[in-house]
Amino acid sequence: MSSTRGSFGSKLGIILAAAGSAVGLGNIWRFPTQAGENGGSAFILVYLLCVICLGLPLMLAECVIGRHSRANTGSAFMVLAPNTNWKWLGRFSVLAAFLILSYYNVVAGWTLAYLYEAVTGTFIELAGTMTPGGANPFSVNFMEFVSDPLKPILFLVIFMLITHVIIMRGVEKGIEKSAKIFMPALFIIVVVLAISALTMPGAKQGLYFLFHPDFSAINSKVILSALGQCFFSLSLGMGCLCTYASYFRKDANLPKTAITVGCMDTFVAIMAGIIIFPAVFSVPGMEPGQGPSLVFIALPNIFNSALSDSPILAWLVPVLFYLLLVFATITSTISLHEVITAFISETFGPSRHKAAVMVSVSTILLGCVCSLSMGPLGDFKIADMVIFDFFDFFTAKIMLPIAAAFFALFVGWKLKIRPLWVELTSHGLVKFKGLRLFLFAVRFVVPVLILLVFLSELNII
Q1: Which one is the CATH code of 11-457: 2.60.40, 1.20.1740, 3.30.70, 2.40.128?
Q2: What average pLDDT score do residues 344-367 get?
Q3: Buried/exposed code over 414-436 (b: 16+ C-beta within 10 A; e: otherwise)
Q4: Residue 371's pLDDT is what?
Q5: Quick one: pLDDT at residue 215?
Q6: pTM of the model
């Protein structure tokens, strides 16, 4: 299998592609929301600790499984533990990636639609229609858009076609090349927007909120929220990094790659806070704990209000911000798509092109159902949730924690020490002195932390 599979052509490509699989809406949308709802600096302090204790060991575990098996996520466990029930773990993870991509592409379409609205000046026009005591036009605009039977689907299809073209071009010419374009562009936009945010009137308050240590604000709620954010921000349990690692070269330094990806992911998340909160504190009456509506309802209004004295910036900043969202989202859809495409192609035999078509068509169709569930299909519910919300709940709060926990347990208890040493040292080419600590983490620390996330997300604790 490994002789006919694609591979990344450079160490830079490995790092950027792996970082792209982690960086997504969880960093730019969910992180500021969680920080705003959980005390800012207190949340960030706990989050950084969670990345070290949960994120890095689990990312490294996925890398070990992927590179040592030289197989896609769905087949990796059949290679490493043949004739055992572990094979179902890989397929379970692929199913999770399929369901996630099916509803994630709906939100991906929203980011593209909002980029279009920012470019065409729709937000500036909406700001001019605001009246005291009247309905918020930004809220009305969002609700009318997501409930429309056609517009969200149009942008969903466009977004998935872009993803499809990249996947069709293969690992090196498609995934790696796109990562070398999207990720540097993403970092540049992040820096430009952060510099712009520092010129806003609320910059001092925003930075104080984010970075002033307040240890008294740390409680069980903040800890559990930080654990959950770490889990979802790093895309753990989806098999993306596992599949990508199967394309890594033998000399790729897995510990260094995991640390670099963790740092890049955290950098983007914190920079998103630097971009958003100075804007929030620049507008009277706005609060940092805006919740999930922050990105698509509050921020367009906030940007226009905070930058009303500069028409150019009032147009440019929203354009750059939603372009940032598009770049972050597409690197995630690419990695999710690849998990499924590689599994179908290498397990059932169709060419990569045919497998990619199957994945794109099926996820678009299921995505259309998820999108329509917020409009014409809104009355059809599963467990008292519309289809979109059910997919989100079932994958994020049930499937991913289960998959990630068993990834850690497999590496910690099933995989032998020799393969671990081979992968963590790149066949002896690099030094790795933390094997015992890593084993302790994946055997005990990571499963316990994931259990806490699992119980917290289900509101059991």
Answers
A1: 1.20.1740
A2: 97
A3: ebeeebbebbbbbeeeeebeeee
A4: 97
A5: 83
A6: 0.94
